[in-house]
Design goal:
seven-stranded antiparallel β-sheet, 0% helix
Length: 94
């Protein structure tokens, strides 16, 4: 049987003194975050889900000192992505 995760469990690893990574999971074992540090540079990505679902509703990031958020919208009663927007720009290509 697979590993049973606790609410907001954090797991990760370190390689030498220069690199580390941490992964977070929620009570439903859904991936909620990843953070890493390479020498003195660090970054993080966080995932939010629609209530009662495994569909991502928002992704926030601070990669390369750029903070951004992506919002996901789905077709009604479906897991098909209908729109992806960002605070950087509309990503539909229009």
């Amino acid at each position: 049987m697979g590993k049973q995760f606790c609410y907001q469990e954090q797991i990760g690893f370190t390689l030498g003194g220069d690199y580390s990574a941490t992964y977070g999971y929620n009570a439903l074992s859904l991936f909620t975050s990843v953070s890493s540090s390479v020498q003195s540079a660090s970054s993080a990505v966080n995932y939010s889900y629609l209530s009662g679902s495994d569909l991502i509703s928002e992704l926030t990031s601070d990669l390369c000192s750029l903070t951004s958020a992506f919002n996901y919208s789905y077709l009604p009663n479906s897991d098909l992505l209908s729109e992806l927007t960002s605070d950087l720009s509309d990503l539909r290509g229009s």
